[in-house]
Specification:
Elements (H helix, E strand, L loop, with lengths): L24 H16 L2 H14 L4 H13 L3 H14 L6 H15 L5 H21 L3 H14 L4 H13 L3 H14 L2 H32 L3 H11 L7 H13 L3 H9 L7 H24 L8 H14 L4 H18 L3 H11 L3 H13 L4 H13 L3 H9 L2 H4 L4 H13 L3 H10 L1 H6 L6 H18 L2 H11 L7 H12 L3 H13 L1 H5 L9 H12 L3 H13 L5 H7 L4
Helix pairs in contact: 1-2, 1-3, 2-3, 3-4, 4-5, 5-6, 6-7, 6-8, 7-8, 8-9, 9-10, 10-11, 11-12, 12-13, 12-14, 13-14, 14-18, 15-16, 17-18, 17-19, 18-19, 19-20, 20-22, 22-23, 22-25, 23-25, 25-26, 25-27, 26-27, 27-28, 27-30, 28-30, 30-31, 31-32
Length: 576
C-alpha cells in the first residue's frame, strides 16, 4: 500500500517470507525469530533463533540484519552496531544495504558516550523514535505510541516523532489523526524532508478510500452478500497490492462461499507476513479451511444417513425373523418411527455423528457449531457431551448430559454406560445414579434387543454411583434385584459393599464370597471391578465380623492379586 512508506524500518529475510513456499533451515529460523518478536515481543528467544541460523550458515546476512534490529530494541547499541556492520559488509549489493548503513550511522550516534546534557537528550529522543518504528513494523502499536509520547516529552519541537506517530495512526486506520500528526511534522520539518512528508500525507487520501471499501466489504459479508463483498475487496486492488488484512478478509469471504482452494491459495502466502497478527490470523483461517472443507464434503454427501439407523434396522430384522405377534408388531412400528425421526435430523447433526464415530473431532466441532446456530435440542446436547468426553473435558460433558436426561433414556445401554462412567470420572455420581434409577424398567422388559454385556456394565456403574452417594439401602435392594438376572457377579459385590455400609458385616461376607467364587468375576476386566477388589472388601467385612484369621487370609489373596491398600497390606502381614 502507498502509505506503507511511512514505516521507515523494513525487516528483511524470514519476517517477509510469504513469497517462499519452502524455507531452508536458516530462513525458517529467521521467520521464527520475526514471529517471536511480533507475537510475544520475546527478544531473547528471537536472538536465540537468529544465532542458531548463523550457526547453520555464518554468512546468512538476513540473520545479521535482524540481530541488529533485535539489539536495537534492547538499546544494546554495541551489539546492534556489530551485526549491522556485518550485514553491510556481506550484503553490499542488497537493496536494503543503504537502509542498513543509515541505521548503522544512527546506532553509532546512539552509542556515543558524550555526557553533554543536550547530546544525551538527543540520544534518548532518537532511541525512542527508532525503537517505535521497529515496534510499529511488528504491529505493537500501543508500545510504539508509548515510545513516541516519551520522545515528544523529551523534545516536542522535532518532526521525527510526529512523522512516526502519523505512520502508526495510519497503520491503525486512524486517518484523521494521521493527517493532523503529519501536518504537524511538515510544519516542524527541515525543507529537505518536507516534500517526502507531503507525499506521505497525500497517500492518506487513497488510504481513506481503501478503508471505505474494506468497511463496505465487511458490511456486505455480515449481511450474507458474499459476491458483493468480493467486489468491494477487488476495488481495493486498484489502490495497490492489498495488505495482509485485506487478503485475509478476501480469504474469509471465499471460505464462506465454500471456495476453499481459492482461499487456501491466498492464505498460504500470508502465514509468515508482517504484521504477525495477520500471519497468525492467516494460519488460523488456513486450519479452518481444512476443517470446513472436510465438513462440507461430509455434509453434502448424498449417501449421508444417521449411523443409528443401521442399528435400528438390525433390531427390526431380528424382531421380524421370529413368529409375528402384537407386541412385536408394535415394537417394529415404534422402531420404524424412530428411524424416520432420525432421518429428519438436521444434516449438521448427522455429520457430527459420523465425524464423532470416525474420531474426526475438528469436523465434529464445526458441525455442532452449525447445528447449534439453528437452536438447542436434547440431541445436540448429547452430541456436544460426547465431543467433550472425547476431548477429555469431563465437567463439560456432564453439564451437556445433564441437559438431555430424557433423551439419554432412549439411548442404548452402551451409550448410557459411557455417560455414567463419565459422571463417575468427573466426580458427579449423582447424575450417574439418577440415570441408572430411571433405567430400571428397561432391565425388567429385557426385549429382543437387550444388550446383556453393556446392560451389566451400565448396572455396575450405576450401583457404584449409588455407593458413592451413600444410598446403601437402595444399592442393596437393586443389587439383589439384578443378582443373577444379568448373569454377572458384580451386583453381588455391590450388595456386599452396601451391607457393609449399613454395618451388616455378617451378611456382607456371604455376598462378597459369592462374587469371589464366580468364574465370570475372575475373568472380568472392567475398570470399576479390578481383580482383588472383592477380596479387599471381604477382608474388611471379616474384620468387622471379628474373624481376624479369615480376614488376614482374604487380605493375603488381595495382596497377591495386586492390592495396594495400606490397611490390607498391613493385615496381610499379620498386623492388626
Amino acid at each position: 500500500m502507498k502509505y506503507a512508506a511511512l514505516l521507515a524500518l523494513l525487516i528483511i529475510g524470514g519476517a517477509n517470507a510469504s513469497a517462499q513456499t519452502k524455507l531452508s533451515g536458516p530462513e525458517k529460523l529467521v521467520s521464527f525469530a520475526a514471529r517471536a518478536i511480533g507475537e510475544n515481543r520475546d527478544l531473547a528467544k528471537a536472538r536465540a533463533y537468529l544465532q542458531d541460523a548463523l550457526a547453520l550458515d555464518p554468512n546468512y546476512y538476513p540473520a545479521m540484519y535482524n540481530l541488529g534490529v533485535a539489539y536495537m530494541l534492547d538499546e544494546d547499541w554495541s551489539n546492534a552496531k556489530k551485526w549491522l556492520t556485518a550485514f553491510t559488509e556481506y550484503a553490499r549489493s542488497h537493496p536494503n544495504a543503504p537502509r542498513a548503513r543509515e541505521e548503522l550511522a544512527m546506532v553509532q550516534r546512539l552509542e556515543e558516550n558524550d555526557q553533554n546534557p543536550d547530546a544525551r537528550r538527543n540520544r534518548q529522543y532518537l532511541s525512542c523514535v527508532y525503537r517505535a518504528r521497529i515496534l510499529a513494523s511488528y504491529s505493537h502499536l500501543i508500545d510504539a505510541f508509548g515510545l513516541i509520547a516519551k520522545a515528544m516529552e523529551i523534545d516536542g519541537q522535532r518532526y521525527e516523532a510526529y512523522a512516526v506517530a502519523g505512520a502508526v495512526c495510519a497503520q491503525a486506520s486512524a486517518v484523521t489523526q494521521a493527517r493532523a500528526l503529519l501536518d504537524a511534522a511538515i510544519e516542524k520539518a527541515p525543507a529537505d524532508v518536507v516534500l517526502n512528508l507531503r507525499i506521505q500525507r497525500f497517500a492518506l487520501d487513497d488510504m481513506e478510500l481503501e478503508i471505505g471499501f474494506r468497511e463496505k466489504a465487511r458490511a456486505r459479508l455480515k449481511n450474507g452478500q458474499l459476491e458483493e463483498a468480493l467486489k468491494q475487496i477487488d476495488n481495493l486492488a486498484k489502490y495497490g497490492k492489498p495488505d495482509p488484512a485485506v487478503l485475509n478478509d478476501q480469504a474469509s469471504v471465499l471460505i464462506s462461499m465454500s471456495r476453499f482452494q481459492e482461499a487456501r491459495d491466498i492464505l498460504k502466502g500470508l502465514t509468515t507476513v508482517n504484521p504477525p497478527s495477520e500471519a497468525a490470523r492467516a494460519r488460523e483461517l488456513l486450519a479452518e479451511t481444512d476443517v470446513l472443507e472436510r465438513y462440507t464434503k461430509l455434509y453434502t454427501s448424498t449417501s449421508l444417513a444417521h449411523p443409528d439407523t443401521a442399528t435400528i434396522q438390525k433390531e427390526i430384522d431380528t424382531l421380524a425373523a421370529g413368529k409375528p405377534n402384537k407386541e412385536k408388531t408394535e415394537k417394529i412400528d415404534e422402531l420404524k418411527a424412530k428411524a424416520q425421526s432420525l432421518s429428519k435430523q438436521p444434516r449438521a447433526l448427522i455429520a457430527a455423528t459420523v465425524a464423532l464415530q470416525s474420531e474426526d473431532l475438528d469436523v465434529a466441532t464445526v458441525a455442532l457449531q452449525i447445528a447449534e446456530a439453528a437452536g438447542k435440542s436434547p440431541v445436540l446436547s448429547y452430541r456436544k457431551g460426547l465431543l467433550a468426553l472425547k476431548r477429555g473435558k469431563l465437567s463439560d460433558a456432564v453439564k451437556e448430559f445433564g441437559e438431555c436426561q430424557a433423551y439419554l433414556l432412549e439411548r442404548s445401554f452402551k451409550d448410557r454406560a459411557q455417560v455414567a462412567e463419565a459422571c463417575l470420572m468427573a466426580k458427579v455420581p449423582t447424575s450417574a445414579w439418577e440415570i441408572f434409577q430411571a433405567s430400571l424398567d428397561v432391565f425388567e422388559k429385557k426385549t429382543a434387543s437387550f444388550d446383556l454385556e453393556n446392560a451389566a456394565s451400565f448396572a455396575a456403574f450405576g450401583l457404584e454411583a449409588g455407593l458413592l452417594e451413600g444410598d446403601f439401602k437402595s444399592v442393596e435392594t437393586l443389587g439383589k434385584k439384578l443378582d443373577g438376572f444379568l448373569e454377572d457377579p458384580r451386583p453381588q459385590y455391590f450388595v456386599g459393599r452396601a451391607l457393609l455400609g449399613q454395618n451388616k458385616a455378617g451378611d456382607a461376607v456371604g455376598w462378597l464370597e459369592r462374587a469371589i467364587d464366580s468364574k465370570e468375576f475372575k475373568l472380568n476386566g472392567q475398570k470399576l471391578f479390578p481383580k482383588g477388589l472383592a477380596h479387599e472388601w471381604l477382608a474388611k467385612a471379616l474384620m468387622a465380623n471379628k474373624k481376624p484369621k479369615d480376614a488376614a487370609k482374604a487380605a493375603a489373596e488381595a495382596k497377591a492379586l495386586g492390592s495396594t491398600d495400606p490397611e490390607i497390606l498391613q493385615l496381610a502381614g499379620g498386623q492388626l
